[in-house]
Amino acid sequence: MADMISTHAAAPVIIRRLDYRPPDWLVPDVTLDFDLDPALTKVRATLSVTRNGDHDRPLRLDGEGIVPLAVCVDGRPLAQDEWHLEAGALIIALPDSAHSVETLVELSPEGNSKLMGLYASGGLLCTQCEAEGFRRITFFPDRPDILSRYSVRMEADKARFPILLANGDPIEQGDLTGGRHWARWNDPFPKPCYLFALVAGDLACNADRFVTMSGREVALGIWVREADIARTDHAMQALKNSMAWDERVYGREYDLDVFNIVAVADFNFGAMENKGLNIFNSRYILADPETATDIDYDGVEGVVAHEYFHNWSGNRVTCRDWFQLSLKEGFTVFRDQNFSADMGSHAVKRIEDVRILRAGQFQEDSGPLAHPVRPESYMEISNFYTATIYNKGAELIRMMALMLGAERFRAGTDLYFDRHDGEAATCEDFVLAMEEGGGIDLTQFRLWYEQAGTPHVRALVTHDPVSQSVELTLDQTMPPTPGQVDKQPMAIPLRTALFDPASGEHRGDELLMLTEGRQSFTFTSFPAAPILSINRGFSAPVIVETNRSQADLAFLSAHDDDPFARYEAMQQLMVNVLVGRIAGHATDDADVVDAVRNIITDPLLDPAFVAEAIRLPSEAYLGDQMRLVDPDAIHAARDALQQQIGAALEPFWRDIHARTKANAFSLSPAAKGARKLRNAALHYLVASGAQDGPAIAFAQFSEADNMTERQAALGTLANGASPEREAALDIFYNRYAADALTLDKWFQTQAFALHPDTVELVAQLSEHKDFTLANPNRVRSLFGAFAGNQWGFHHKSGKGYRLLADCIIALDRLNPQTAAKLVPPLGRWKRFEEGRAALMRAELQRILAQSGLSKDVTEQAGKSLE
Ligand code: ARG
Ligand code: ZN
């Protein structure tokens, strides 16, 4: 009976930020010995442990899914009653203040479907330890504030695993009997165990070199399957550019003699910054014109940079506990965003980043899973690798950088790195360094770390012709979020300019600080009412409402010298028309058509910017503007406006599409911009309903010398019902079925399609022979994409909800972390009418009723119902 009860999962434990206590024991040195085999790997760990402070608490080593086959202390094997397990952890009472503790465990990498710890992927053995995967490899105090020096020995079959890699520097290697071999790697930098990594496999290397600013030579290696080696050059160039950029912009130099990157096919996330041995989802390493779009190329560049930058923001200075996750992630996203902007266009990169923030983070911040950038509690930390921690976290750093200015911000980061090098720090430490290094008071600004939810700012301009003065009244409200009802006003930096409608100019951009609930700013000597340009460059991650007319927005869309504000004026113009129509008003599209015409005929504009500026807001973004989302009305209104813009400007679309054709593949900004604009023109041309639209799309699909144009044409066709749709999908499948990353695009394009049968199609695709729950990229391509397709997913029948819930339930048994990431779309039920809302809740309840549900999915589904 006792046994039966103990098989029930214990009530999930909630971890709280304020419960943080320094560790009882430290682990200055670790020696690991791996006897590697996909079916059964033996891990022997020797930990030097030292008592931290004056206490008599036992040593507690976390463990998950492992049992000790042997435990020794100072070389003496312990008897069974000298240790015990408590919730997976190994507890040993130790008499003195320093000991050597040795454990032996066995595990099965190929049986590890969670892809956390040591697992097998495509014939390789690799690890993923962040956040709490190391405890699945060996018994260890698995928390980021314990920094240890690692020495790692691996042995394996030499034919199957000729390459053996770990963190740090290679020390020695040799052959053994029975076709086996071994290698030893030492990492001289103390690190938390979440940065541990090893890889064993039959890998080819793209090898290169980088000379650091102090003249040290670093050996660079990108390791992939032999067949993929030709697809690694872009990643290598990105790595070298990142290393040079971090020296130039932050004064940060690389610190080891080798830097290796390995690409693996099965990976829960984008990539991982393990010290000296980054492990990547292959989709962020491999790229060639035949299979990668320009977005993919940019993704490779951005993620390679992101992981490289972690060497300082994350590894040299790490996090004290997981509540501080944004300390490394927000800062590192900010760094990779600025790097990518420097490599390409600042204007376009900012627009793209804001689009991502609004699509992912604003939605999160207004729903049941909203949490502060520095959360107060969690059940499963993997659920907190969110858009809020990453993208809103980056916006917080960006606001501080803006308020300080470039020089003082650099003084702040220098102080931060110098002061905390080799330490596990907190978000508060970062803010303190900004205050001291930059000479600024951030007392009120700290609320950005504490209060969840997106601030709403209302901006009202009034003009008095008699006194020739302008009054700008700003007020802010903070919406309630789970667990936070009453909120204080935030410190919101708003870059602002007032345009003179006659001259089309302004008198300079000012940084206004909104710090109170309501505040007024007065400007003098304005004979005529000016037009307000506010939150320029998206200086703060807030929602701004203004009393600007469609004519004001049209003016800004033509004249604003801040590219983001110009884009924003276009978006707002379109949103106003669409939201009006969805509400049943007969709004005129003439302003929108004129504004689009203006943009596409302005010869001075960068084509990549043009493509962004004329893009209609997504259906999901329109949904976010409404209290109750009506997916069918949104789709119909957006589709109609697209058709009108398409038809009204048809000759322009034809002209742009034809003139951007002769563009032999290159990754120059000009070539990329031309492709982006060409795809936008094709999209409007097909949307116009022109008879030859599908044929033109099919020709682009067939003739393209690159994936950017081919996939865009496929996507455009997939939205329609032409015979070309089926033909192109078949051709694409047959051409790429053997290449997993490209086949993902085939699944994704269909799941994203704005087509009435998408929900049925996704059901069929989930039974396709090439669909598998074992590969996270494939799951995200089909179900992640589908859940982001508002019109398809929110099919009135509830079929979409059932499909997603079925997937979550099945996947949870294999890979809870990836399953839990699919839950949030079901949690938007409060934003839908009662019919859909009830269907969504029913699926969440069905998920929660499953026995043996992971704590990952339990937390997400449970919170989503509240
Ligand atoms: N630190 C990694 C990155 O952002 C992500 C690791 C994600 N791990 C996880 N268990 N969710 O670069
Ligand atoms: Zn990161």
TrEMBL record:
It is an enzyme of class 3 (hydrolase). Keywords: Aminopeptidase, Hydrolase, Metal-binding, Metalloprotease, Protease, Zinc. Residues 453-546 form the Peptidase M1 alanyl aminopeptidase Ig-like fold domain. Residues 91-195 form the Aminopeptidase N-like N-terminal domain. Its cofactor is Zn(2+). CDD domains: M1_APN. The keyword Zinc applies. Its EC number is 3.4.11.2. Residues 551-866 form the Peptidase M1 alanyl aminopeptidase C-terminal domain. It comes from the Bacteria. GO terms for molecular function: aminopeptidase activity. Belongs to the peptidase M1 family. This is Aminopeptidase N. It comes from Sphingomonas bisphenolicum. The gene is pepN_1.
